[in-house]
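Module 6 notes. Inverse folding takes a fixed backbone as the condition and produces residue identities as the prediction. Think of it as a translation problem where the source language is geometry and the target language is the twenty amino acids. Below is one complete input and output pair. Work through it position by position during the lab.
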């Protein structure tokens, strides 16, 4: 169901020939209204891809009628020509939708563009632009899965999530839905992750409400995925509202639904991280502030020695303490506690329970770091460092 789970949306995913292997590489999501409200969050990397610059401008208007996404090329670090190609793509989508008789008049200034793939290479516009016509012709209320497949790069699986409240059918009691799709498997680090995400809802909400809910959701989900410490140039998360359900949910209920979809997709990103054999849930508790908890969690997540130890199923808690010690967080080294999979292997900054009690056979490894300073906490998701990750990122240019 993905991005077409909510009423008012159609989507398509096709092979335009951007990828040399012939796999699907062009996705289109169209908001058929009646409302065309939208919000977006983008990479915090100072080097931004052309489609990020374009879509940031589009989102300032708070209106998006369609999103065109390609895999197989990031269109990043491509100079003025790259931005011209992005503009041309938006113009082509608007013209194709208008020619298809899709209803409301479309214009390029309301078409968001997103790209993912190799940095520093211009897109093959002779293939992408004709592909837009093919994608428009393929638009369907059942096209969400095809769209999710078309945005994959090194992803091994496509990623979708849906949350519904009540009945989403117009005659079934007036419910509403939030759906979404994501891609991402490497370059996963805060500032979002190297990810493209499109979220949709048929709730009848304005762009300011969408923006508030989206930023709250990404702060505790996508921004706390830290696979390899590398930040992308192309991160894009969009939330579109069609208003087709006619329902105006309470903000708190809507924000929680958006957060739940984002959390589901973020967890799928970690589960599909390049070469990973372990998913690591790092929970920092007892912190003096949430910022301290997040800083400590990120430091633990980016400790390559620890990531290697976890790959080898070694509960090396000393590497956790070492990572904590590099931060500016408030703590007393003699009061730190660390648990791995529920076994408190470190107590009061020293030897705790027998590390041989720790089982690390399962895919998920849980690390709890107690700073014993306050009452704030945060969770960061990471994964282990493997030979497969090194191989993939030496064999694949990214």
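Target side of the pair, the amino acids:
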């Amino acid at each position: 169901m993905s991005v077409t789970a909510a009423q008012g949306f159609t989507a398509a995913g096709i092979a335009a020939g951007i990828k040399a292997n012939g796999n699907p590489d062009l996705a289109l999501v169209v908001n058929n209204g009646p409302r065309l409200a939208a919000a977006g969050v983008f990479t915090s990397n100072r080097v931004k891809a052309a489609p990020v610059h374009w879509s940031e401008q589009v989102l300032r208007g708070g209106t998006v009628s369609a999103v065109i996404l390609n895999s197989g090329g990031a269109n990043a670090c491509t100079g003025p020509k790259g931005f011209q190609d992005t503009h041309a793509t938006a113009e082509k989508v608007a013209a194709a939708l208008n020619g298809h008789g899709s209803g409301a008049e479309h214009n390029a200034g309301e078409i968001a563009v997103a790209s993912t793939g190799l940095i520093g290479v211009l897109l093959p516009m002779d293939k992408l632009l004709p592909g837009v016509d093919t994608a428009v012709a393929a638009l369907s209320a059942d096209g969400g899965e095809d769209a999710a497949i078309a945005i994959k790069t090194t992803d091994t699986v496509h990623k979708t999530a849906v949350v519904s409240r009540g009945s989403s059918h117009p005659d079934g009691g007036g419910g509403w839905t939030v759906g979404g799709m994501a891609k991402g498997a490497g370059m996963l680090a805060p500032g979002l992750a190297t990810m493209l995400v499109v979220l949709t809802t048929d709730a009848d909400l304005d762009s300011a409400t969408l923006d508030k809910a989206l930023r709250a959701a990404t702060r505790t989900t996508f921004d706390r995925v830290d696979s390899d410490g590398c930040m992308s140039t192309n991160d894009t998360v969009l939330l579109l509202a069609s208003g087709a359900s006619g329902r105006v949910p309470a903000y708190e209920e809507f924000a929680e639904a958006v957060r739940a979809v984002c959390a589901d997709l973020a967890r799928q990103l970690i589960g599909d991280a390049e070469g990973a054999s372990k998913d690591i849930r790092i929970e920092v508790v007892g912190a003096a502030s949430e910022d301290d908890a997040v800083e400590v969690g990120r430091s633990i997540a980016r400790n390559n020695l620890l990531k290697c130890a976890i790959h080898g199923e070694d509960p090396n808690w000393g590497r956790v303490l070492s990572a904590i010690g590099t931060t500016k967080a408030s703590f007393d080294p003699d009061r730190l506690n660390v648990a791995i999979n529920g076994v408190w292997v470190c107590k009061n900054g020293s030897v705790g329970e027998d590390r041989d009690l720790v089982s690390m056979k399962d895919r998920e490894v849980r690390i709890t770091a107690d700073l014993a300073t306050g009452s704030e906490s945060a969770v960061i998701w990471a994964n282990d460092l493997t030979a497969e990750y090194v191989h993939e990122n030496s064999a694949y240019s990214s």
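Reference fact for the lab report: The longest strand covers residues 279-287.
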